[in-house]
Amino acid sequence: MLGGPGATRRSFSHGGGSCRASRANAHRTLRAAHRGAAYGSPEQPNYVDLDPTTGLHMTGGVQVVELEAYRLEVTGKVGRPLSLTYDELRCIGPKIEMECTLVCPGFFTDIATWAGAPLNKVLELAQVQPGATGIKLFGADGYAVSVPMDAVRDSRNFLAYEWEGEPIPVFHGFPVRAVFPALDGGRWMKWLVKIEVE
After folding, report:
1. What are the residues facing 158 on neighbouring strands?
2. What are phi and psi of 9, to 5 degrees?
3. What mean pLDDT is predicted for residues 53-64?
């Protein structure tokens, strides 16, 4: 939902058609994302274990987010608070697809192709107020991290909903993960549920 209670619901498209997924598509998305994990109770990996399914390293306590109930909240110093469904986020374009290097300093480096909605476009829709100094990202696991506005404005930043052309696997942040190509992996928030403009 865009603009809070009572707001008119809008659809976004980055490909010339509707981006709303059917219920069947949503279920297929869930099955793809949970590949390699027992739905509802995935095994908790040790810090920086290697995921044999994807070849990526795993960090944090795995969160299982129900797709149909998922909302990405954008709040704080904005003129238009947002509460975006997974499909609404997918329809915010132009879609960014990029091979990125995630660096966890002193631990590991992962290289993969991610795709998603431009962060700047999401913030534009929320109408960030003058004087905002940054954003704070919140994950479903309770983790939070701040990013200064000069770094936020990098046009390469996006909110990923795909990894290698498929829904992001649950171990790596399904349904949405922040991607900051110029920043270390600690700011690539997994299981992203809220962005607060500070």
Report:
1. 118, 179
2. -80, 135
3. 89
Nearest CA to 138 out of 98, 81, 192 is that of 192
Please, which residues have CB within 8 angstroms of residue 3's CB and are 6 or more apart in sequence? 80, 81, 82
Q: Which two tokens stand for residue 156?
A: 């390469």
Considering only CA atoms, give the Rg of the chain. 16
Q: How many CB atoms lie within 10 A of CB 167?
A: 20
| 134-152 residue pLDDT tens | 999 999 999 999 999 999 9
Query: Strands 192-197 and 134-139: what pairing?
Result: antiparallel
> Can you name the residues that pair with 83 across neighbouring β-strands?
73
Task: State residue 68 phi and psi, 5-degree precision.
Answer: -70, -25
Q: Which domains does the chain have, with CATH numbers?
A: 23-197 (3.90.420.10)
What is the C-alpha to C-alpha distance for residues 71 and 193, in angstroms, rounded to an integer?
A: 7
Please, are residues 154 and 180 in contact by the beta-carbon 8 Å criterion?
yes
Cα–Cα distance between 89 and 117 in angstroms, integer? Answer: 7
- Residue 39: pLDDT over 70: no
